[in-house]
């Protein structure tokens, strides 16, 4: 459901009566205080946490509110968080832990690290149930097209999966709709790879060149703030408690 009024969207789904959800996930729902929530999951990345940026990375985004940064609320809002998910590569995690300990000292919540693990390629516009294709499905040079917040990380992921970097990277602003780019993309004369987020928009262009989305899944590999189980076990425990509370047991 797409609706600026999150509570209204949930009520509409419940009125449907065909398949009432067991749980609602609100994307960017932290600021929707009118929608009662059982759990607030706050997503952070390296730029949010580090005091000194890695080479080639932008300055720290910690507590930088739009338009100075990408945060929608000041740091005090983190007191409402139920858990923190930190997106970074495993090799970067050890050096990030000291900064996490300092940044989140006032917010003692479970912290879980994850990365986006590529699973395969899917032809843009194809049925979501069709099997994912291996990297070998795209031979030779390719271009990577994206309209996301952190293109550098996406390029890193797709390069690792393909075993080679894209010959050309076309990076646009976050949420870009690509409506004016059809001719330019087709003129590249090579297969296009994109993120799943961008595939929805590129599919509407009816491109004549091959276009594939990189299928990814979240792979959780570390937890911080002992004693904390892995994310999967933590989620199962939380869900069991939430269901018990709802049923009054």
Polypeptide structure, described:
There is one protein chain. By secondary structure, this protein is α/β, with parallel strands linked by helices. The chain contains seven helices and seven strands, in the order H-E-H-E-H-E-E-H-E-H-E-H-E-H. The protein has two domains: 6-114 and 218-247, no CATH class; 119-215. The longest helix has 17 residues, at 231-247. The chain has a seven-stranded mixed beta sheet with strand order 1-2-3-7-6-4-5. Strand 2 (83-87), helix 3 (93-103) and strand 3 form a beta-alpha-beta unit. Helices cover 27% and strands 20% of the residues.
What are the defining features of this structure?
249 residues; alpha/beta; seven-stranded mixed β-sheet; globular
Question: What order do the helices and strands come in, and which of them pair?
Answer:
Layout: H1 6-16, E1 41-45, H2 46-49, E2 83-87, H3 93-103, E3 111-123, E4 143-146, H4 151-162, E5 168-171, H5 182-186, E6 192-195, H6 196-203, E7 211-224, H7 231-247
Parallel strand pairs: 1-2, 2-3, 4-5, 4-6, 6-7
Antiparallel strand pairs: 3-7
Oligomer: single chain
What's the total helix number?
7
- Provide the residue-averaged pLDDT: 90
Terminal Cα separation, in Å? 31 Å
**Poorly predicted spans:** none
Question: Approximately how much beta-strand content do the residues carry?
Answer: 15-25%
- Strand numbers in spatial order across the main sheet: 1-2-3-7-6-4-5
Q: Structural class of the helix and strand makeup? A: alpha/beta
Query: In total, how many domains does the architecture comprise?
Result: 2
Radius of gyration: 20 Å
Shape designation? globular
Number of strands: 7
Q: What share of the residues lie within helices? A: 25-40%
| Series of secondary-structure elements, N-terminal to C-terminal | HEHEHEEHEHEHEH
Biggest sheet overview: 7 strands, mixed
